[in-house]
Amino acid sequence: MSDIKIIMKKEDYRNILDHCKKGLPNEACGLLAGTVDGNVKTVTKVYLLTNTDNSNEHFSMDPKEQFAALKDARSNGYGLIGNFHSHPESPSRPSEEDKRLAFDPTFEYLILSLQDIDNPVLKAFKVDKEKNVTIHEIEYI
Ligand SMILES: [Zn+2]
Predict the structure, then answer these.
(1) 9, 34, 55, 119: which could form a disulfide with 81 (CB 3.0–4.6 Å)?
(2) How many angstroms does the Cα of residue 57 sit away from the middle of ligand 1?
(3) Which CATH number is associated with domain 5-140?
(4) 38: phi > 0 → left, psi -120 to 50 → alpha, else beta; which?
């Protein structure tokens, strides 16, 4: 745990969970808009995107939807602070590929594990340039 904290509305969590369950058996993905104030990152909006890979082991976000999300976030005065994807059959931790693709150490990488469908696990990760992984706390409001 580091001292960075992410604040997310319960409603946004439910939307992420619904989106990821609907995406099964494949991975689902999306983007998070928000604000950063010191060590506190607040999610202001969640964008549910299409996984164009249609795979249960990896994902690619639809580029048009990504662009639309970025445009929408900016027009509301927010930046993109992170993304999320699901792990249908594995725990909530970055895979080697997830680490390889994590190019921004300031970005929050959220992974929702649906390995136990009755007990979904959402965790947020920072991946630094050396590919070290740190877990960030998520507080639900
Ligand atoms: Zn992954």
Answers:
(1) 34
(2) 7
(3) 3.40.140.10
(4) left
Q: For residue range 28-74, list pLDDT tens digits in order.
A: 999 999 999 999 999 999 999 999 999 999 999 999 999 999 999 99
pTM summary value: 0.96
CA of 134 to the centre of ligand 1 (A): 15
If you measure from the C-alpha of residue 17 to the centroid of ligand 1, how many angstroms do you get, rounded to a whole number?
Answer: 15
Mean pLDDT (the chain) is 96
Please give the backbone phi and psi of residue 24, each rounded to the nearest 5 degrees, phi first.
-60, 145
* Every domain of the chain and the residues it spans: 5-140
Inter-residue contact 34 to 44 (CB < 8 Å):
yes
